């Protein structure tokens, strides 16, 4: 019975474990820190919505996505 419990625990930890490794790099950080990291990658951070009265640099990032810019032919020439 103990062996079955150990095997079950190992199986669950293998399935749940990889989620931590793919944690989002910007969510939960201050906007100023996230914006600095985005700028290092030649990106331009843009604020979509603001809630509350905190200064922008002190705000916490709750969501983000990488925009896709297409030219007139529908091609993406943006560097990764």
If you had to describe this structure to a student in words, what would you say it looks like?
The chain has one domain. By secondary structure, the chain is an all-alpha fold. The model has no long low-confidence stretch (mean pLDDT 77). It is built from three helices and no strands. Helix content is 36%, strand content 0%. The radius of gyration is 20 Å and the shape is flat.
Which properties best describe this structure?
80 residues, mainly alpha, 36% helix
Furnish the topology, listing elements before pairings:
Blueprint: H1 2-16, H2 18-21, H3 31-40
Distance between the termini: 51 Å
Radius of gyration: 20 Å
Number of helices: 3
**What is the overall shape?**
flat
In the predicted model, the low-confidence regions spanning at least 5 consecutive residues are none
Structural class: mainly alpha
Oligomer: single chain
Using DSSP, what is the number of strands?
A: 0
Query: What is the helix fraction of residues, given as a range?
Result: 25-40%
**Total number of distinct structural domains:** 1
Proportion of residues in extended strands: under 5%
Outline the biggest β-sheet. none
Mean pLDDT: 77
The ordered string of helix (H) and strand (E) elements is: HHH
Could you give a quick summary of the protein structure above?
This is DUF732 domain-containing protein. The protein is an all-alpha fold and about 80 residues long.
